[in-house]
Amino acid sequence: MLETPRPDTLRSDARDNRERILAVARTAFGADGLGVPMREIARRAEVGPATLYRRFPTKEALVIEAFAEQMALCTSIVEDGLSDPDPWHGFCTVVERVCELHAGNQGFTAAFMAAFPHAIDFTTTREQTLRAVGELARRAKAAGHLRSDFVISDLLLVLQANSGVRAESPADALLAARRFAALQIQGFRASPGAPPLPPPARLPLLPVG
Amino acid sequence: MLETPRPDTLRSDARDNRERILAVARTAFGADGLGVPMREIARRAEVGPATLYRRFPTKEALVIEAFAEQMALCTSIVEDGLSDPDPWHGFCTVVERVCELHAGNQGFTAAFMAAFPHAIDFTTTREQTLRAVGELARRAKAAGHLRSDFVISDLLLVLQANSGVRAESPADALLAARRFAALQIQGFRASPGAPPLPPPARLPLLPVG
DNA sequence: ACGGTAGTGGAACACCCCGTCCGGTTAGCT
DNA sequence: AGCTAACCGGACGGGGTGTTCCACTACCGT
Fold first, then answer.
1. Which chain A residues contact residue B191 at CB under 8 A?
2. Where would I find the HTH tetR-type domain in this sequence (chains A, B) (predicted)?
């Protein structure tokens, strides 16, 4: 656990390295999940392990920084959905885009669902985003298009489920995510004759595996 | 990689140990996935690592033997569905029961989807089962209840997705699986106004992770 | 009862991972 | 040009996992 100076006070080459590390981490974690070793990240970034650890004192820190912008993207997706005049259309767009986002970022779902001990902002952002989704769902229900027994944790359910889908290429992953999202939307749609859903379960924030 | 004599020619104590190991493996892999270490299996079975490896030359072998009966159960679930006079009802039951089965056996999905190099029967059983599902789906489509753009790999998609769902207790896992299955069925149901699904993706048989 | 052999448990091997530290080197800044 | 921050690469410790070695044990037929 070394010192970590503010990124903007770094020497230019150090700054470059930092950016390269983050880029590599995003690609690697996104493609192969959080299991990618730190040394592998360092190797691909053409950097020594020590450099990596000087910039990011722990793997957790690297993961959080690497996915910070995905997290922001996630939030903005939901905000876009909220600002859609048609709440059901907004809701569908959120489901689609979130599934696609997670499809291209295998590790992100794990990070998103994980209970990182040292990432307060990550956690709070997630909570806020979920609250926004709740508001969107409320409107979509009021409009009569979202089934009335939908609950927020259903979206977590779908997210977790989507993360279980593995494809053999990024292109296939995207296809699978799109098809999956479409199926979920169909399942969420309010339809008169449909039977009610079984009761929801409590979904945990799991430790990083 | 040691010799592995036929189970029925074993000495009595060895036979006992073998059974205990299998029982422990089923519970452990079922509850916590294939990540459970061999040592842990041995410890819980009150057996040394060597004993474990004398009976099952590799972890893969243990996994296959442990889930052999789940595999058979899987097959019989599909056959039950096929023999249902109402193909759509049969189809729904298959989805529900398979999701529940996989919910209680975390590791099984991984094993089911995995491309085990040395498990010919496992693979062939899976293929046969999938073919049976295909026949069931054909009938359910003909009856007009299953959406016509359903393809077999959609079931694999749902299976993979279901395996991504994690709960904090077996009871919650079952609840989550039931709710998830209900959502999927709703998505699979043929409904006149529904838009067609995006194209399916090729899903791989992944190596054991 | 007894001896041979299958069976056993614990230590050990080989490998991988995270995180750390250090000697010698490079590259930015002034 | 020189000072210094930053870097590289390798080695190390601690922990984990799949698998094997070996001396000992306990079963079972005679």
1. 186, 191
2. 15-74
CA–CA min distance B145, chain A (Å): 13
Going B142 to B147 to B150 to B152, the CA torsion angle's sign is negative
Right CATH for A7-64 from 1.25.40.390, 1.10.10.60, 1.10.760.10, 3.40.50.720 = 1.10.10.60
User: Which nucleotide is the nearest neighbour of B54, by CA and C1'?
Assistant: C7
Higher pLDDT among residues B85 and A114, named by residue: B85
Whether A51 CB is under 7 Å from strand D: yes
Query: How far, in Å, are A15, A191, B182, B196 from residue B193 at the CA level?
Result: 54, 11, 20, 9
CB–CB contact A204 B167 (8 Å): yes
Task: Return the nearest residue to C5, CA–C1'.
Answer: B11
Query: Contacts of residue B149 in chain A, CB cutoff 8 Å?
Result: none
CATH number of B7-57: 1.10.10.60
Subunit contact A157:B173, Cβ cutoff 8 A: no
CATH superfamily of A68-188: Tetracycline Repressor, domain 2 (1.10.357.10)
CB atoms within 10 A of CB B193: 6
Is the pLDDT score of B178 beyond 70?
A: yes
**What six digits make up the tokens of A167?**
């494809």
Which chain B residues 45-64 have CB under 7 A to strand D? 49-50, 53, 57-60
Taking CB atoms and an 8 Å limit, are B204 and A173 in contact across chains?
no
The CATH fold assigned to B61-188 is Tetracycline Repressor; domain 2 (1.10.357)
Between residue 5 and residue 24 of chain B, the positions with Cβ below 7 Å from nucleic chain D are 11-13
In the numeric block, which tokens belong to residue B173? 């896992």
CA of A11 to C1' of C28 (A): 7
Q: pLDDT (tens digit, 0 to 9) for every residue of chain A, 209 residues total?
A: 545 667 777 777 888 899 999 999 999 999 999 999 999 999 999 999 999 999 999 999 999 999 998 899 999 999 999 999 999 999 999 999 999 999 988 889 888 887 777 777 788 888 899 999 999 999 999 999 999 999 999 999 999 999 999 988 899 999 999 999 999 999 999 998 889 999 999 987 655 54
